[in-house]
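Annex B. Sample input.
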Amino acid sequence: MRAQVRRAAIAMDPKSLAGLFRGSYSFFQVDLEELRRIVPDYQKLLPLPQRIFLEPEEATPLEGFPVLISPETLALRDALEAFIEAEEQAQIALFRREPIDKRPHEAAWQRYQALLVQATENTIRSSFGRHYPSIFWLYHSIAVSRVFKEVPRRIVRENLKIGREYGDAIKYRVFERYLDRILNLSHDVTFHIAEEAKENEVDLFPDILSRMRDNVLILTEDHISQDLVELDSFFRGYLQLDGKNFRNRLAALHEWHLKQLSEDSDLRSAVAHLIGFQPHGDPRQYINRPGYLRFLSQRPSYNAKRMFSPELVQVWEGLLSKLKEFEILLALRRHVIPVHKEGEVLVCQAPNPRGSGLLPRKVTLSYSTRPLEFMTPWVVDPLVERFGLIYDITDFSAIISMLKRSGPKAQDNSFRSIFRFQRWVNQLARNNRLKLEKYLGDGALYSGRHPELLLKVSVLLQRYYRRAVEEGFPFDRGMRVAMNYGQYRLLPIETGPMGGGQRYEFFGHGIVELTRLVTGKSMHEIDEFRNLLLTSGYSVGEVDRFFGPLLGQNLDLIEKSEEERGFYSYINRNGSLVNEGIVATRQFILQLDKSGVVGPLRQSKEGGRQFVVFQLEEDDDQIYVGFRKLGMARLKGLGRQAVYEVVDGERWRDVDLPRMPERTLFEALEHRLASSGDSGLSAEAEVDRA
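Annex B, continued. Sample output.
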C-alpha cells in the first residue's frame, strides 16, 4: 500500500513531483500538467523509486532502484556490447562490398538473446504489479544508450573513410535492427507467459519499452544539453539534417527572442497571459513550450531564412516532445543505484548533492535491503527473517454460533465489540512499530524487527483483553498469543488494475509455526468438527452425546493445576501444547538475548513453576515479564519444538526477588529447567530436556 499512497501524493503534491525529478532540466518543466501532457498514463507507466535504508536504519535513506551487480548482470552487458559490435562489423562489410561471416554475428546474438530472455522472463513472472520489467529496461537502457552513443566513433577507428561518410547512418541502421530483434523477443516471451498464466499479453508487456521504441533518443543517448551539441549524429544519421546549421538557427532564434521580449511590450503581455512571464527567468524556456515557436513564427519581425523555416518549426515541435520524454525517463534512470556485495554486506555509491563538488561516497546498506537481481527467478528474494506475533481468540466460532441463536441484536453487538478490540490492538501495534500482515478473522498476524517490542505488545494485549472481558466483551473464553523469529516469504498481491500499488502477504514456515502455537488444546480438531455440526443445525445435546466417548478419553490429559490460572500454557501428557496464554520459540529467546534489552535476571517460584523474571530496559511502562521453559511440544506438521511460556510480571513489580547469576536469558531458562521438578513437564519432555 505504501507505493499506492506515494503515487497519490505525487498526483496531488507538486513538491513530491519535484522530489522525483530532482536536478536541472533543459526542456522538461517539472510540472504535473507537463508530465500529464508528455506521459498521459504516467501513473501506470512510471515506476516510483523506493526508500533504500543505510546501515544505521535511522540515517536518511536514499531514493532509487537498488540493482545488484552480479556476474550474470555484467555478462548481459558484455553480451550486448559484443552483439552491437558484431552488427557494426556486418554493416562495415556491406559498405566494403565484402562477404559477411555470419557465424560470429549469430553466436553473439545467441549469447545476448539467451541472457535477455532470462532477464525478461524473470521480471515478467515476478512482477505482480511491481514494475520489474520497466525497472529492468531503465537499468539496461543505460548500457544500451552508452554503447550506441559510441557507434560512430568505433566505426571511425575501424575505417576512417566509412566512419566519416556513413558512421551516423550505420548507427541508426544497427539500432533499427537491434530494436526489431528485442521487440520480437519481448513479444514472444510475453506471449508464452501470458498463455501459460491465462493472462492478457498487453497487460504483461513492459509499457516503458514501447515508449523507448517510439522515441529513438532514449536508447541512443545518455545526455542531451540545452544547445543540442550531442545530437549532431542524430541530425545527420536519423533526420538527414545538418546538425550544426540547426543549432546555429536555434541560437539565432534565442538571440532574436530575447531582444523581442525586452523591446516589444505586446509580446511580453502575450507571454504573461499565456505562459506567465518571469522577468528574471530564462527566456529560452518559453521556446520549449509546445506551440510557442509556431506563435513566434507568425510575428512580422520573424526571419524564417535566418531562423527556423516552417518545415524546421515542425521538426522542432516534434523533437521537443521527444526531448521532454527523454529527460523524464533519464531522471528515472538516474535513480538506478548499482549495489555490490562485499562479503556479507551490500554497498553502493551514494550521490552527494548536485553542485557540492563532492564525489559519490561509498555507503553500507541496511541488512534489510533486498536489491533487484534480474538474472534470478524471483528478482527480489521473497525470503525474509522477521519477528512474528499472532493472537487468536479462543472458541471464537463457537461463541459466534451461540450468538446467532440469540438474535440479530446480540450478533451485531458482538461484531461491534470485536471491531473495537481489533482497532485498539492495531493502534497498540502501530505505536510500537509493528506491521499488520494479515487479519485472521478472530486474530491477526504482526511482524517487527525488534523482539522487545513484540514482547511488550503481547503483555499489553493480554492486559487489555482481561479488561475488555471485565467490561462485557462477549468473546470471554480466553486468548492465545505466540511469538517467534523465523523465515517468511513475501507474496506480492496487486491491488488495482492500474498497478498503482501492491501489498504483500506472508506465507511459509514462519507463519505455519505461529499458527501451530495458537491452535490450543489437543482436542482442537474435534472442536472444529463440533462447531461445524452446531452451525449446520444440530442441537448441542446431540453433538455432545456424539463426541462424548472421545472427550472422555482425553479428560486425563487436562492439567487442572495449570488451568486454574487466568492465562496458562503447558505441555500435556501426550506432548501436545495447550496454549491459553503467551508462548515463544527458542529462536525468539535467542534473538531477545542478542538484542541487549534483557535486564538483570531474577527468579520466582509459583505453585511448582519456576520463572526467570526481568524488566524491559529503558521502557517507560516498566513492564516486567516472566519466562519458563515448557519443554518439547509436538506441533502438527513441524515435529517437536522447544516452547517457552511468557507471563505478565506485574505481580512481581513490588516483590524483592532474588537475583540470578550473570548469564543469558536462554542459559538461565535451561538452568532453571534442569534444576527444577516442574510439574508442567511430561515424561517425554523430561527425556527431551536431558
